[in-house]
Amino acid sequence: MTAEPTGSTRPDPAPGAVALTGRLLCADLDEAAAVREHLPEHVALTLAEPGCLRFAVEPTEDPLVWTVSELFEDQLAFDAHQARVRSSRWFEATSAIARDYTVETLTGEV
C-alpha cells in the first residue's frame, strides 16, 4: 500500500535550525502496518508543534522502508518534539522499528 506524501515545507530555514533525515526500516509487514496506522496522527500532532518547519514521512518502493525528513526552527523545538514523541501512541506502536537517522544543526553556510 502506498500513502500520499505527508508533511509541510516552509522555505529557507535560519541558521540554528535542526534537520533530521533518514529512514524507518520495518522488519516485517506488521511493523509497516503499525506505521501506516499511526502515521496520520503523528504527522498532524508534529505539524502542530511550535517550531516545526517541515515534517514528512513517505513510503518508498520497498513496503518496509519509509523516508523521514524533519526540520525544526531550533534545538529547543526539536527537543520538545522528541519529548512529546516519547509519550505518544506513535512511539508505543513503533519504538521497536529500526531507524537510520542523521541529525544536524544548520549553519546557514552553502
Automatic annotation (TrEMBL):
The keyword Oxidoreductase is assigned to this record: yes
What Pfam families does the record point to? ABM
Q: Which parts of the sequence belong to the ABM domain?
A: 30-89
Which GO molecular-function terms appear in the entry? Answer: monooxygenase activity
Superkingdom per UniProt = Bacteria
InterPro entries, sorted: ABM_dom (IPR007138), Dimeric_a/b-barrel (IPR011008)
- What SUPFAM superfamilies does its record include? Dimeric alpha+beta barrel
Q: Does the keyword Oxidoreductase apply?
A: yes
Keywords assigned by UniProt, alphabetized: Monooxygenase, Oxidoreductase
- According to UniProt, the name of this protein is Antibiotic biosynthesis monooxygenase
